[in-house]
Design brief:
The structure is a homodimer of 398-residue chains. By secondary structure, chain A is α/β, with parallel strands linked by helices. Chain A is 20% helix and 31% strand. Chain A folds into 4 domains: 168 residues, 3-Layer(aba) Sandwich (Molybdenum Cofactor Biosythetic Enzyme, Chain A), CATH 3.40.980.10; 46 residues, Molybdopterin biosynthesis moea protein, domain 2; 84 residues, Molybdopterin biosynthesis moeA protein, domain 3 (Beta Complex), CATH 2.170.190; 64 residues, Beta Barrel (Beta-clip). Chain A is elongated, with a radius of gyration of 31 Å. Chains A, B: GO terms for molecular function: metal ion binding; molybdopterin molybdotransferase activity.
């Protein structure tokens, strides 16, 4: 067993172990509609002007500004341009052309008079208000010139970014590859959810929790398994995960002080750090490298396992995926709280309508149902033994 | 054309048109790992106690509390219980049983002494600290009793909720069906992104934008199309969308004051409301019912279309899907801004490191590339003609 280290020290160890994943820069090209929630691998320049051609900002009349400077001015209406394919004919001097929003400006025209500022009488239109050159005209490239950067590298793609890519004529985009993650739940007491429970058996919830949390952090699960407390069985799963292309292994269970600690038994001889972090829940933790694969090991208690992922691994995976980090804020605790000096306590909390945060469930690391009703972690610092109702405390959004 | 209505009036019209979708309660059962981001259709009770059996919270020794009340007390070690299948033998009076975290408490034992408070000497253990009855014992059902509510109806499922469902032995969950949405972009000038552009043609970005935004709002696109300004072509698309099971139709384009307004031409004779909302961008809007299908019509300008979805439809779809609403907050504007009195202006903005919000691009509704660099909408109220640098303004997170 190593020494008891701080939360920050462990977070640094994990981040250092995962740094090669952050720096690998692997990219893949996907269709735009599959790219939502992904992150651009490179800066993207528009191949075309946006908009591609000079067009009208309004429904109205295309004119020569100089000819309507002395408005009101009556002009014969010659032609009509819709937002439709084709080149419009040139605007004859001394005339106005009816034009629709988005339609190309006829050569010769240099302003658009909105329909609201005109009066039509048969084949003639009275322009009631003078317009400057360029008014209500969208110049080609006025949103973005061809060759200019449309999106930078590392940009999270949501609908508005995908729209801009489509507007520039793209159908696919190079995005960072998702980190490929393997998940192993360890513990002879575990059975697949849905299987009948014998004496001493519990359904494996860590497997589902970690798989769902990995996906939420922008990574992808390539291998998921459940093993008994048998180091050779665990070794086989690690090897299989490597064969499946895993870049990161996450385990739950088998790292505490008991005599049957399968993860410790496999990894400690290979140079793993196995120790304790000054936090509750989640004290026992380990980090290792197995055949080049970074391995992050969480305790088996379900709350410990889920919190450890959220605190140590999710921030790194989210950064790699370009996702925003979880929000931290200060809130008042709704009722008094006691804590253990020397450990950072992560209580489960729920934000209340009055803005305070209520602690749900106790500190026990088995309270998986209570965790499901929480929306924040309430962080009680190491030096604090008690908080009174109304005291401010840092909370981390789940 | 109807009158000019307020943003709130239009939002109410849209919400009323979509109310049947909110109240339809359609559910489907999906495996836990497919349920992330979905919403529970019904309250869910646990069929089993959580935890299912009385177990140890620590690695240590199971004892009778009364026998260690006068600690230090030395007891012979008899047996060992791991977290593994099977019933442990009863604790013989006057002995201690070695026990692991999560292992079942032997019948007769009523407390666990953590290993840190013990000294082992061969087959004997000295308990150095007295323990109360129940200390470090997790009672069956202490997290949640069998039959109690595990999750309510309408709960968004994230990893911690899925973990709780798995812990109670479930493998699947009934979730609200996603609203099935059809999207049609109208405009003869539109071509599929990636196709060569002829004169007067632009790539259709609204189709991609709305499809991605629908998915982000927790609904599902069942039909997506692009039509020229031809009312019969549009009618055929509406009919096809109904055949595809659409519950909601979204259109872009064809609702303004021009002479070629395909959406207006099709829907106004059927009793649609086609009018203007006192906002910029996004003034021209329409709502209709086509063969029982609610239809929400946005303007064709890409910024107008995306903002209209975000303001009027996304909140309703997100509520149906149980997703959190977009955050609104007050921020200072980084530079002065002018606006049009009588319209609510939605400028595109970016939050800066100092907390202020910077307006990006101009007010033009064609600035699709500028929108892609924004992360908030800056809302300038109808009565405001100008804001000075540092003035507070409401911003809506995109």
């Amino acid at each position: 067993m190593g020494d008891r280290i701080t939360v920050e020290e462990h977070a640094e160890h994990v981040a250092a172990l995962l740094a090669p994943l952050r720096d690998r820069g692997a990219a893949e090209t996907v269709p735009l509609l599959d790219a939502r929630g992904r992150t651009t691998a490179d800066a993207i320049r528009s191949a075309i002007d946006l908009p591609p051609f000079r067009n009208s900002q309004m429904d109205g009349f295309a004119v020569r500004a100089a000819e309507v400077a002395a408005a009101p001015v009556a002009l014969p209406i010659v032609g009509e341009v819709a937002a439709a394919p084709g080149e419009p004919p040139a605007l004859e001097p001394g005339t106005a052309t009816r034009i629709m929003t988005g339609a190309p400006i006829p050569p010769g025209a240099d302003a658009v008079v909105p329909v609201e500022d005109t009066t039509v009488d048969g084949d003639s239109v009275t322009i009631r208000r003078a317009r400057e050159v360029g008014e209500y005209v969208r110049e080609a490239g006025s949103d973005l010139a061809a060759g200019a950067e449309l999106l930078g590298a590392g940009v999270l793609l949501e609908s508005r970014q995908l729209a801009a890519l489509a507007a520039s004529g793209l159908t696919e985009v190079a995005v960072l590859s998702r980190v490929r993650v393997a998940v192993v739940s360890t513990g002879s007491e575990l059975v697949a959810p849905g299987q009948p429970l014998g004496a001493g058996e519990i359904p494996d919830s860590n497997g589902i929790a970690l798989q769902a949390a990995v996906a939420a952090a922008g990574a992808v699960v390539v291998s998921a398994a459940r093993v008994r407390d048998d180091a050779e069985e665990l070794r086989a799963r690690f090897d299989a995960a490597i064969d499946a292309g895993a870049e990161l292994m996450l385990t739950s269970g088998g790292v505490s002080m008991g005599d049957h600690e399968v993860v410790r038994d496999l990894l400690e001889p290979l140079g793993a750090w196995v120790g304790a972090v000054a936090m509750q829940p989640g004290g026992p933790q380990a980090t290792a490298t197995y055949r080049g694969l970074p391995v992050i090991c969480f305790p088996g208690n379900p709350v410990s396992s889920q919190l450890s992922f959220a605190l140590f691994v999710a921030p790194v995976l989210r950064e790699i995926a370009g996702l925003p980090v979880a929000r931290r804020e200060e809130r008042a605790v709704a009722a008094s709280v006691t804590s253990i000096v020397g450990r950072r306590q992560y209580l489960r909390g729920r934000r209340m309508p009055d803005g305070a945060v209520e602690v749900v469930g106790g500190p026990g690391s088995h309270l998986v149902a209570a965790l499901a009703t929480a929306d924040v972690l309430v962080i009680v610092p190491e030096a604090v033994a008690a908080l009174a109702a109304g005291d401010l405390v840092e909370v981390l959004e789940l």
